Amino acid sequence: MQNKVLIVGGGLSGICLAHQFEERNVDFRIIDQGVNESSAIAAGMINPMVFRKMVKTWRGDDLIPYLKNFYPKLEQKTGQRFFFSRKIRRVFSTQDEHDFWVDRLKDPAYEEYIHELEDSDPTPDYVLKKYGDGWVKSPGYVDAKLFIKANHDYLITKRKLNIQNFDFQSLDPENASYKCEQFSHIIFAEGYRGKFNPFFNYLPLQQTKGEVLTVKSDAFRKDEILNRKCFVLPLEYGGFKLGATFSWDTTDTKPTEHARTQLLDQYDQLSKAKIEIVDQEGGIRPTVTDRRPLIGKHPEKNNLFVFNGMGTKGYMIAPYFSEHFVNFLLDGAKLDDEVDIQRFYKKHYHRDTGKNK
After folding, report:
1. Residue 352 has what pLDDT?
2. How buried is 113 (Cβ within 10 angstroms: 0-12 exposed, 13-18 middle, 19+ buried)?
3. Residue 123 forms part of a structural domain
4. pLDDT 10s digits, 276-306
5. 49-50 and 171-172: which strand pairing?
6. Eight-class DSSP state of 252
7. CA dist., res. 321 & res. 8, Å (int)
8. Does residue 308 sit within a domain?
């Protein structure tokens, strides 16, 4: 049959896939329940470094150039801005971290990632920098709420997005049909809810709660993100995001006093500027034990696929791998072994039940 795709989930992953299929002139439809508890809560910061060892983020040389073109193209399509330029001021946590940084500055492979502070641009007085600080060359951040709204509005206008719950009882996996409508590919991009998917619940998807504060301050610079154990991200349209926490094995998005206290304690090690808390939000990230996405085909149901597990750096990872995945689906290209769910077949998939071993 001619390609006709059903995407289950309209968060970051589903949206990225939708635009890839649109670029390829493939008929597609998205079903989303309209309650986003991950993509819309995320800070959307593009951080190209792993600070503990001062190394490049996984696949950064591929991911970052790709997203620099991807998000502006979506802004043009939707007619809305959600991708904003910011650099990151990394405040070092230890002397070792500072020393790693100095070593990286000598490495040509890091020229596009970090650079020294300029004498003409001194560190603000409110920054606590016992071990020093340095610049990270980040493309900036994606305003998650603006991104979701702009793309949902666009897809609804195109009649490609239906806001409704997905009914697994109405899915016929053998014939790849949903409510008696047949599809060439049915792709599950459900975020943390993928843990409850009866066809892909064998995968080691984790539910990782994160909480962020929205704060006000007259002290902070508006053109840089502060980062040390937590981050302070200036929003384009006012206020700052302070985040983020991590807690596991919960689907409760309700903000907690424990997370607020933790964030404020971490903030006190970063800055002495006074802040006023405006809001607190919680979301559930879809993370994976090996910190790599879950992408690929079901072991037995040939028309069922998953595109999930983008994790804490989803806004950096999802654009590149959405094209990678669509090339696999439409052109037969090989999936990267590090993201292909086949890496979990032997250990986790039981062919008799399709559940965890």
Report:
1. 53
2. buried
3. yes
4. 999 999 999 999 999 999 999 999 999 999 9
5. unpaired
6. -
7. 17
8. yes
- Residue range 15-74, pLDDT digits in tens: 999 999 999 999 999 999 988 677 767 889 999 999 988 999 999 999 999 999 999 999
Chain centroid to CA 50 = 15
Question: Could you give the number of structural domains in the chain?
Answer: 2
Task: Write out the two tokens for 349.
Answer: 């998939």
215 shares its domain with 198: no
Reduce the DSSP state of residue 331 to 3 states and report it: helix
CATH number for the domain spanning 11: value is 3.50.50.60
Q: Which residues contact 159 (CB under 8 A, 6 or more apart)?
A: none
CA distance 333 to 20: 15
User: Alpha carbon 19 to chain centroid distance?
Assistant: 16
* Total number of residues shown for the chain: 357
In a domain, 355, yes or no: no
Whether 126 and 19 share a structural domain? no
Nearest-angstrom CA–CA distance, 205 and 215: 32
Residue 81 lies in a domain: no
Q: Do 212 and 136 sit in the same domain of this protein? A: yes
Cα distances (Å, whole numbers) of residue 279 to 65, 215, 216:
33, 7, 10
